[in-house]
Design a protein that fits this description.
With about 325 residues, this protein is of the alpha+beta class. About 35% of the residues lie in helices and about 30% in strands. The longest helix has 15 residues, at about 95-110.
């Protein structure tokens, strides 16, 4: 029986991305990742000017990575952090998770952190219990929803695009808009930032928009972005809605749906549904197998649209928070 005495904690090395990707994949086999995607997680935080760090647990004899914890600043506040942790199933229930969490807390306390958030999936009760024992409290839930593209019958929504156009709204794509007006990206960015503020969520802190440069790098120029699958609703010169998709870094048959949102004036009038219909039509035309999306349990409107279109909810992600250094979780 291998024990906690066989394990040592150490800092992350640049050569560890592959091992971390394997660790994530064995922990969540239905949501695998790659070394390139893990590198993107870290690089995106750096591009936003946010601190992040990994602590790894390794078997001392072989130096096999058997656990890890990643924590990073959140844009809403420099003393608020997010944490995600992993322990290889073969090494579970030996105290490794506790040691990793304690190591992360030592760093966070030294940095003056006031709050840390984390999550656990509802179908992994031991992970939920682990966070509870560590002093975390549930503050909300997120749903992953998946759509089998070929099974989606869009004939039920045949008129929704025409109804949106009858409102004076042009449904277009980022690719078409850049071809029409190469200077339009600043306006798309401003609309994207404003729409992000309108998304209901569990967090009482107001979201902070990323810089234009970071938006362009990650939402426009990233190799997984599909500009012809970045759908926009435009009324005159104003962008009033969007629904964008990226290719999965792991599975060539999967599209990940990013932000879907519409300005308040046009909510409840079928515009978001029309945008989502266009994303599904795109997936069907190009032979994608599945669309995946994440939404807060508080975002009842988009959850209802997803259900109507045939998206199936996966096990919930339970969002938890813990106050540090006298801070508050709410």
């Amino acid at each position: 029986m291998r024990t906690i005495s066989d394990v040592a904690l150490r800092e992350f090395r640049d050569s560890d991305y592959e091992a971390v990707a394997r660790l994530h994949t064995v922990t969540y086999p239905d949501t695998p990742t790659t070394a390139a995607e893990v590198r993107d997680w870290v690089r995106e935080q750096a591009d936003r000017g946010l601190y992040s760090a990994w602590i790894l647990a390794t078997e001392q004899r072989t130096e096999e990575v058997v656990g890890g914890v990643w924590f990073h600043q959140r844009m809403v506040h420099p003393q608020k952090y997010f944490l995600r942790g992993y322990v290889h199933p073969d090494w579970a229930h030996r105290g490794i998770g506790r040691r990793l969490m304690e190591g992360a807390f030592d760093v966070l306390h030294a940095r003056g952190a006031q709050e840390v958030k984390s999550f656990a999936r509802a179908d992994q009760p031991r992970s939920v219990a682990f966070l509870q024992r560590a002093g975390f409290t549930e503050i909300g839930r997120d749903f992953e929803s998946r759509l089998l593209v070929a099974a989606c019958d869009l004939t039920l929504f045949a008129g929704v695009v025409d109804q949106t156009r009858a409102l004076g709204i042009e449904l277009t794509t980022l690719a078409d808009e850049l071809a029409r007006d190469p200077t339009c990206l600043r306006g798309v960015y401003q609309a994207h930032s404003a729409l992000g503020f309108a998304i209901p969520g569990e967090d009482p802190d107001l979201p902070v928009p990323v810089s234009f440069e970071a938006y362009r790098a990650w939402q426009v120029e990233h190799p997984l972005v599909l500009k012809d699958a970045y759908f926009l609703a435009r009324r005159g010169d104003m962008f009033v809605g969007e629904s964008a998709m990226k290719r999965s870094a792991v599975d060539g048959g999967v599209l990940n749906q990013e932000l879907t949102a519409v300005v308040a004036e046009y909510r409840g009038r079928g515009v978001a549904t029309a945008l989502k219909v266009l994303t599904i039509q795109y997936a069907q035309r190009h032979g994608f197998r599945e669309i995946r999306t994440f939404n807060s349990s508080r975002n009842a409107a988009i959850l209802a649209i997803n259900t109507k279109l045939g998206f199936v909810r996966q096990p919930e992600w339970i969002l938890c928070a813990k106050a540090l250094s006298g801070g508050s979780t709410r």
